[in-house]
Design a protein that fits this description.
It is a single chain. The chain has a 9-stranded mixed β-sheet with strand order 2-6-7-10-1-11-12-13-14. The N and C termini lie far apart (59 Å). It folds into 3 domains: 289 residues, no CATH class; 114 residues, no CATH class; 58 residues, Arc Repressor Mutant, subunit A (Orthogonal Bundle). The protein is built from 16 helices and 16 strands. It is elongated, with a radius of gyration of 29 Å.
Length: 477
């Protein structure tokens, strides 16, 4: 019997997202990735005695945006707390966070898995400061304090996730919302988006939760998915053997595809939370919430539904087009100039997304701007060039930066639409290939593609496809 058919996984995810504010959360140091170590620090973020934090208003605004975008209840009164623990990259010996009075609570987001929609609850979203970064060498550990005090939101899910696939979909949706709001760049390699997972198992049909473990050090969404599968199988084997599940924190090793124990898992009491005495409580009035709500962009779910209705596209294409706000905007800019959404979608999905994947870039860094791409598509739709020639022009636009019209005119790529010229060429090809003609007429109808290919080869792809097919059928049939 498959163990995963016997046990139900219960998964909760804690996601930390660094906010794209210009300065840190409690001081004026720049919030910037990649600066030389320990150059973006001051007495406040280094925790020097006698210093006082001052809250960054923009960080609160960004956190509220995420709360509103995920259907959370916004607290009118909230305060910060000290989370006490000792680690070399935490110079104060405590982290300023939020505990029993978080900024946002009781939200939810919708995910899609195998064409099925499901809501995942969000327990809370709260603000806190980041710690520094420990860089472990073979003989020593170095500390870079640049990250100390960078503003974070921690997004804690309800234990509503029941498979690694659902976890992947949930993380993808969170990332999408953060990017639509433009409050986090979501670069996991740079640490601006990090995820910890809590996993437990219970027999299917039971209500009581099992003992949970926490998984850390996952550097990609696929890494999270792999780590969850590993831990679910590990716990299932232990339960089958009658062994206890220890409440501990595990570190995921992506290279080895396995986890190792790090420490016994802490509880809230271990952190000795108490109200932060150097920060006054934060009062959020309804007027400020309304102002922030008015600045929210069209969010992924709303854009998805609109694209389905407005452009009559398939769910698969819409899912791809709305995966990034900038990509959806690109599509709509092109549609203003071409007005053929299905054709545009086909080209974006097959050609542009191929280039973005190969070059590992986003649409924001794509060389061909919407107006240039629209010019190319219009040359195809008005039959100035064939679709095959259009693909060649597209590739040349990427390398040369020229417009589609310039390339077509310079290289004389205009489509051949003269029936007489195409028919003359077809008769020549048929006379040069008598054996293939006889095989076709004896029933090998798949040879039609061979003759089409010969015409396109001799015209360098410039022959009008519809005219070519019509005239070939006339002479072959």
């Amino acid at each position: 019997m498959d163990l995963l058919e016997k046990y139900e996984p219960i998964i909760g995810l804690e996601v930390h997202a660094q906010l794209l504010t210009e300065s840190k959360i409690f001081c004026n140091c720049r919030n910037l990735y990649g600066a030389p170590p320990n150059t973006l620090t001051c007495p406040i973020c280094l925790g020097m005695p006698g210093t006082l934090p001052v809250l960054n208003r923009k960080a609160v605004e960004f956190a509220l945006k995420m709360g509103l975008a995920t259907n959370c209840q916004i607290a009118s009164y909230t305060r910060f707390a000290r989370k006490n623990y000792f680690y070399p990259d935490l110079p104060k010996g405590y982290q300023i966070s939020q505990y029993d009075e978080p900024l946002c609570q009781h939200g939810r987001i919708k995910i899609r898995v195998n064409d099925t929609e499901k809501y995942i609850g969000i327990t809370r979203i709260h603000l806190e400061e980041d710690a520094g970064k420990s860089i472990h060498g073979s003989e020593d550990t170095l500390i870079d304090f640049n990250r100390c005090g960078v503003p974070l939101i921690e997004i804690v899910s309800e234990p509503d996730i029941h498979s690694p696939t659902e976890a992947y979909a949930y993380l993808t949706k969170l990332k999408q919302i953060l990017e639509y709001l433009e409050i986090c760049d979501c670069n996991m390699e740079e640490g601006s988006l990090r995820c910890d997972a809590n996993i437990s198992l219970r027999l299917k049909g039971q209500q009581k939760f099992g003992v949970k473990t926490e998984m850390k050090n996952m550097n990609s969404f696929r890494g999270v998915e792999r780590a969850l599968y590993f831990e679910i199988e590990r716990q299932a084997r232990l339960l089958e053997q009658g062994q206890p599940i220890l409440k501990q924190t595990l570190l995921w090793d992506e290279d080895k595809g396995e986890a190792r124990p790090m420490r016994t898992k802490e509880e809230s009491d271990d952190y000795r939370y108490f109200p932060e005495p150097d920060l006054v409580p934060l009062v959020i009035d309804s007027e400020w919430i309304d102002q922030i709500r008015a600045t929210l962009p069209e969010l992924p779910d709303a854009k998805y539904e609109r694209f389905i209705k407005q452009y009559a596209l398939r769910a698969y294409e819409v899912n791809l087009l709305t995966s990034e706000r900038a990509l959806a905007d690109y599509f709509e800019e092109v549609n203003k100039l071409v007005s053929n959404p299905i054709f545009i979608s086909k080209w974006i999905v097959s050609e542009i997304l191929r280039v973005l994947s190969q070059e590992k870039i986003s649409i924001s860094n794509f060389k061909i701007k919407p107006a240039q791409f629209a010019e190319l598509l219009n040359l195809i739709t008005n039959e100035t060039i064939t679709p095959n020639v259009g693909k060649e022009v597209f590739d040349k636009m990427l390398t040369s930066g020229e417009s589609a019209t310039s390339i077509v005119n310079r290289e004389q790529l205009v489509q051949v639409r003269d029936d007489a010229k195409i028919e003359e060429l077809i008769l020549t090809i048929l006379s040069e290939n008598p054996e293939e003609v006889n095989r076709y007429k004896s029933g090998k109808k798949n040879l039609f593609g061979f003759f089409m290919g010969q015409v396109m080869k001799k015209t360098q792809g410039k022959a009008n496809p519809e005219a070519t097919m019509r005239l070939l059928k006339k002479h072959l049939d």
